[in-house]
Amino acid sequence: MFSNLNLFHTKLRQFYNSLTDIKTVFIVTAIALSIIGRTSIISVFDHLLTKPFLSHITSSAFSDVTLILLTLIYIILIVKLLGENTRIHIFLFLAALTLLTAYLYFRVQGVHYDYTPFVLFRQIKYADIVILFCSGMIALKGLEWLSPKYPVNYYEDPFIADLPIRRSSDDLLNRKQFAKRIAEKIQSKIVKENAGALAIGITGPWGSGKTSFAYMVLENLDKERIIVHFNPWRSSSSSKIIEDFFELLIGILSKYDPNLSRNVYRYAKTLTQIDENKFTKGLKGVSDYFEERNKNELYDAVNRSIATIYKQIVIFIDDLDRLDKSEILEVLRIIRNTANFNNVIYLVAYDKGYVLEAVKSFNPHNHASFLEKIFQFEFSLPLYESVLIRKFIRELLEPKLSEGFKQQLLIVLDSRGYKAQKINDELIQTHREAIRLSNSLLFEIKDIEDDILFYDFYLLQLLKIKYPIVYNDIIQSWDTFFIIYHEKNENYFRFRNESERNKETGGISGYFDPVKKNAEYNNDKNQNTEIFANYLNELKQKIGYNDKDISNINLLIKELINADRVLQNLENESYKAFVHPNNFFKYFAFQLLEGEISAKDFEKARKLSFQDYEKIINEWVSDNKYGAFLDKLYKIRVFVNQQEFENHVLALFKVGKDYVSNDRQLGFDYKHLMEILKYPATSLKTTDIRLYPDLVSYQDFLLDLFEQAKFPAEFESNLINQIISYQYEFPLDFSKLATINMQYFQSYLNKQGDISNTFWNLFHNCKMKASDGLSKEKNAEAKTLCIDYYLAHLSTEKLGQLINQTNPDSDYYYFSPDNLNFFFNDFQELENWLTKAEQLDRQHPAYLEFVDFVNKIKVNNFNSIKFDFKQLIPVRWRSM
Fold first, then answer.
1. Helix 454-466 and helix 547-560: axis angle, to 10°?
2. What pLDDT digit, counting tens, does each position of 828-879 carry?
């Protein structure tokens, strides 16, 4: 019941507001005057419309059809408007209501007019379409008023709005006494007559609180002052600024003195064209509308009118430092020349450096002192006190942080024993910056707050807010800037030295290669410049960072990778610090380039079971994000636990198998995978085991990977071949790996696989370490199996595989001695095989062509011959 009463009250208030609107009052007045003077209006209507046009309309079938079609179109339009919840303007509603009332009066009374009927429906008149039109408009407005308005639902975790304060009681920066003093100065009467306007400038950098300070000044003015708020930023162009200014001024002054408003209007007309259709222009006197006056006379008239109202006019101009150069010039012209009226005070907020740059574009020789001619007084906002900014940040963040993070927030803001307080004071110096920092931090920390150290996350947010280029470059090139070292069973970041840059790739020089510890590095007499330091010097030249910026960035990053730093009472949380490489991507979980996979999604996926992880990988592949997935995958080089490591290895195996299945053998980075496989244990002799309880446990995992490989296991065979070929230190014995590769080849032969690239690849991968322990050699058993299988399964159509082209552009072919000797002891054995091989079709044209080639090459003493093959496809410039 109460809700219905509230709804009725709301509707009633809306209706009241509509009716009491000044424009509505005018149209209602016009309607009332029309009713009073209806006789004259009817006479004019008859003279202009009824007699010359409407009286000549006669009934006809054509007219009936036309009006019926028009009615249908109108009904469709009304239905469409209803479906779109279109709002009908109150003007249209009142006009329709008035027209309907007038028409029904004449129609029902049947006086004054005769109405033309439809041919088919004599009781319905042509003019009755007016009822339909007006009823439709009235119904739409009625439904708009009666339709329920559902409240918008809001969550309880909004962004922090960057809004200026409007009351001195909200002043957190101890500036209200200055605002009060300026207000008193404004309200002090200037002794000199005809002094013109007084201009006061409130200056400070963006976000320093200029608007808030100006509001405090206005708050301290008594109510007898006329306050005008002009925001030139809302003007569509520089040419519109003066016009918009005077339109606003005329509208406000009309409430106090129509003569003053009229004089200002006349004066404005000499300066710019003001839209004659605007309602405010009705304030001008009709008799004076086209008068031409001398501009000075009109200016004096405005001053005389201002004197008669006995009121001071205070014009507040905000956002001057948001304008472009030409717009700033227009505003300055208003203040100093165009609207330099007596008893007018301009209160203008701006960034002085920005405005001076604009002035310099049109006054390069005297721009530094130009503003002295405009503003009689400039008040530069006092610097923010660091302690007040830190207090403001704490008030913004504390209510929305967990208890554990509140403690770290205090360390960041109030503890002098750590670098964060100094960095914060250097980088966050305005309320606006504090609000932007807080919004960013609270938004991005929500899903990772259990996995990161707040202290480090706060520092990274400072970097992101102040130096976004550096922040993004660290994400993209972390392995160029940092190197990982191992100490006390932990991994840490330190700056990478130029001498440690990989000369081939520009990236890291091998994650698992031994690197120096911090102490050794710092004592190295031959130490080179850090890559990050050189990067900052380049930014200094290209972007314009100054020495202070470089110092702030260096201090911040060094604090992030300070392995010796232990936060008070947070010793058990230190493993979450940024300095540990395995935490790196957690701190950038919300960084997502278009078309990429977010670090947050990637981190979440790779910690699932591999079955679920694989499903997500397949989804990424189907969404054309395979490249983004590989980019993320290859950046992972450290692991927290066994499952995370094994998921990573299985994912790399999946990628490798995909490369092999799509005949992209050279695209996969086998070396990277071999380095990853050495992460838990670098060799058979190592005693430093990670993630696994012992070496045997890890070896079992590796053996399972190789022994359970799915047919034909070509990728796994390639990997083993790489390990043996490069004599790579590995946790499995080479002889064991060679045996596994031999088993892959035997399995392929047992399943009658084709003589394809996979066949040859599996065979060539059957290598083993030679007796000298250094070189590698083919497996003799594999060779025997290969020859027997090949000669028993080579089809007639593929006999051309035994013939080689002499060079790429030649029509000459021969039997390569290497290939021939691989399969046969001599040429006679080849001929014997041709006559005995059971799988060969000796009637097939390809067989006959091969025999013809054999005979001709014998005649040529086994040298190459020119031959035009029709059936066979020889090997083109390629040996077995």
1. 160
2. 998 899 999 998 999 999 999 999 999 999 899 889 999 999 999 998 765 4
β-sheet bridge partners, residue 357: none
Whole-angstrom CA distances from 720 to 608, 709, 733 are: 28, 12, 11
Distance, in Å, from the CA atom of 347 to the CA atom of 227, rounded to the nearest integer, reads: 10
What letter would DSSP give residue 591? -
Give the sign of the dihedral formed by CA 294, CA 299, CA 300, CA 304.
positive
**Angle 454-466/403-414 helices, nearest 10 degrees?**
60
| Alpha carbon 544 to chain centroid, angstroms | 25
What was the pLDDT predicted at 664?
64
- Cβ neighbours of 512 (radius 10 Å): 15
DSSP string, 270-311: TTS---TTSGGGGGS-GGGTT----HHHHHHHHHHHHHHHT-
Res. 817: pLDDT tops 80: yes
Three-class secondary structure of residue 229 per DSSP: strand
Q: Which residues pair with 486 in a beta bridge?
A: 491
Give 355's Cβ-side CA count (13 Å radius).
27
Q: How far from 862 is each of 531, 817, 859, CA to CA, in Å?
A: 62, 10, 7
Question: What would the two tokens of residue 234 be?
Answer: 């809302």
Q: Residue 227: beta bridge partners?
A: 314
The residue to which tokens 């990853």 are assigned: 676
CA nearest neighbour of 645 among 675, 670, 671: 675
Gap between the Cα atoms of 362 and 645, Å rounded: 65
> For residue 504, what is the DSSP state?
T
- pLDDT category, 19, cuts 50, 70, 90? low
Cβ neighbours of residue 309 under 8 Å, at least 6 residues apart?
Answer: 256, 257, 260
Structure tokens at 423: 């960095």
- Decide: 381 and 213 in contact? Cβ < 8 Å: yes
**Residue 381 Cα to chain centre, angstroms:** 34
Classify 231 in phi/psi space as left (phi over 0), alpha (psi -120 to 50) or beta.
beta
Instruction: Tell me the backbone φ, ψ of residue 381, rounded to 5 degrees.
Output: -60, 135
User: Pairing mode, if any, of strands 812-814 and 865-866?
Assistant: antiparallel
Q: What pLDDT, in 10s, does the model give residues 641-697?
A: 999 999 999 999 999 998 888 876 567 888 888 888 888 887 767 778 888 999 899
What type of residue is 478? W
Q: Which residues contact 727 (CB under 8 A, 6 or more apart)?
A: 769, 774, 776
- Asked whether 762 and 745 are in contact (CB, 8 A), the reply is yes
The rounded distance, in Å, linking the Cα atoms of 554 and 561 is 11
| Beta strands in 171-259, from DSSP E residues, in sequence order | 198-203, 226-230
For 498, other C-beta atoms within 10 Å of its C-beta total 12
Alpha-carbon distance of 429 to 440, in angstroms, equals 17
Angle at 339 between CA 338 and CA 342, to 5 degrees: 135
Q: Are 563 and 492 in contact (CB under 8 A)?
A: yes
Find out whether 375 and 197 touch, Cβ atoms under 8 Å: no
With vertex at residue 273, the alpha carbon angle to CA 267 and CA 275, rounded to the nearest 5 degrees, is 110
Whole-angstrom CA distances from 584 to 477, 574, 743 are 12, 14, 41
Strand partners, 33: none
Q: Which amino acid is at 648?
A: H
Q: Is residue 97 within 8 Å of residue 138, measured between CB atoms?
A: yes
Whether residue 108 contacts residue 153, with contact meaning beta carbons closer than 8 Å, is answered with no
